[in-house]
Amino acid sequence: MTRPISDLTVLVTGAGRGLGAAIATAFAREGARVAINYRRSRAEAEALAQTLGPRAAAFQADVTDAGAVARMVDEITGRLGAPDVLVHNALADFSFNGEARSHLDRLTWAEIAAQAETAVGGALTCLNALRPHFVEQGFGRVVTIGTNLFQNPVVPYHDYTAAKGALLALTRTAAKELGPSGVTVNMVSGGLLRSTDASRATPEAVFDIVAGQTPLGRVTTPEDMADAVLFFASPWARAVTGQNMIVDGGLVFG
């Protein structure tokens, strides 16, 4: 079963700003109905929805809270239709600041757990909320957001990378289980993005180094990532599941 993007309702978690906003914008550009999830960024999310037009709306929920997610899905269904696509982009508070990161000798399990709660727990919560609709219609698309640090930990952000590694594992096991129901589950992994709130603390010299080491000679943008996410939701990816697409200009060869 295939459906054009313009026929889909898409839920993007953590979409009030940064990469999530770019993903929401890309889907709206292609005619999809877009649910912009946010936890605290209400003003940004509502402003984005207004910009994207009547087929987009903002919905508040902490993705780690199953009750809040269930309420949000009901609200989305009433306004835009039940989500056919889940893009799990939500990120626990994090800053890509190599000087301030926790080294192993002072890293705590609580730091890893905090990242995993949103990255993995949030994905599971949202997926479970949407699964009945996916199964009923025999169609669903799930795209998780990962990182190329899993393949090449050039800066050892232990907590963030461990959580994204676990999310990749869940992506693949979910693909195995949900495939018979017509649901594909894939990951898009970016490198350092210019720029998001999380990368704002990254020194300009680091962006220059990354650009210099990348075959395309530039740092990836949120818009680059967003277009790759569209692929996995499109009919062109109908036979692709359990995969991790690295979008970093060729810095990491997967």
Describe, in plain words, how this protein is organized in 3D.
- The structure is a single chain.
- Helices cover about 45% and strands about 15% of the residues.
- It is an alpha/beta fold and about 250 residues long.
- The protein has a single domain, classed as 3-Layer(aba) Sandwich (Rossmann fold).
- A 7-stranded parallel β-sheet has the order 3-2-1-4-5-6-7, sandwiched between helices.
- The protein is globular.
- The two termini are about 30 Å apart.
- The mean pLDDT is about 90.
Concise overview:
The protein is α/β, with parallel strands linked by helices and 254 residues long.
Keywords:
43% helix; Rossmann fold; 7-stranded parallel beta sheet; 254 residues; 15% strand; alpha/beta
Topology (elements, then pairings):
Blueprint: E1 9-12, H1 18-29, E2 33-38, H2 42-52, E3 56-60, H3 66-79, E4 85-88, H4 109-137, E5 140-147, H5 158-178, E6 183-190, H6 204-213, H7 222-233, E7 244-247
Helix pairs in contact: 1-7, 3-4, 4-5
